[in-house]
Amino acid sequence: MARPKIRHIAIFARNPDELAKFYQDTMEMELVYTKGPGNSQYLTDGYVTLAILPHKLEGSAATGLNHFGFSVTNSEELRRRLADRGLEEPKRRPPDRAFAEYRAVDPEGNWFDLSEGGYEEPKAQAKAKKPEAVA
């Protein structure tokens, strides 16, 4: 099995549009997927995908890092390894999620995703719901 690689980081932001524009303007990141103004914005530097997710006060997480994602060749093997360590079994992500198939947790409670499909292209089921990209 190939070594898993971190390819996706997600942060909560009070203003995802403004933060996405900041990363586009200052770091020359490319907007690759959006759920529309005020919603999730996905940018890339050509290798890592940065998901900027909308934060709401009634949400359960603070602003900042939410989760990161590994690109893997065999999620079944990694799910077995996690179970062998006594960790909670990774949960299948909803079909409308554009990138990762599973959400897992490390021993400290940090969330991470497992994606066999990668983070370069949104999956077909999510792509069908993709709105026009925001400039």
Question: Any overview of this molecule?
Answer:
This protein is an alpha+beta fold and 135 residues long. It has one domain: 2,3-Dihydroxybiphenyl 1,2-Dioxygenase, domain 1 (Roll). 19% of the residues lie in helices and 32% in strands. It is built from three helices and eight strands, in the order βαββββαβββα. Strands 2-3-4-1-5-8-7-6 form an eight-stranded mixed beta sheet, covered by helices on one side. The radius of gyration is 15 Å and the shape is globular. The C terminus is likely disordered.
- Looking at the chains present, what oligomeric state does this protein adopt? single chain
Please tally the helical runs, counting DSSP H or I stretches of 4 or more residues: 3
Low-confidence stretches: 124-135
| Secondary structure category | alpha+beta
| Beta-strand percent range | 25-35%
Most strands sheet = 8 strands, mixed
The CATH topology comes to: 2,3-Dihydroxybiphenyl 1,2-Dioxygenase, domain 1
Helix content bin:
10-25%
Known CATH architecture: Roll
The CATH superfamily name is: 2,3-Dihydroxybiphenyl 1,2-Dioxygenase, domain 1
**H/E order of the elements?**
EHEEEEHEEEH
Cα(first) to Cα(last) distance is: 39 Å
The strand count comes to: 8
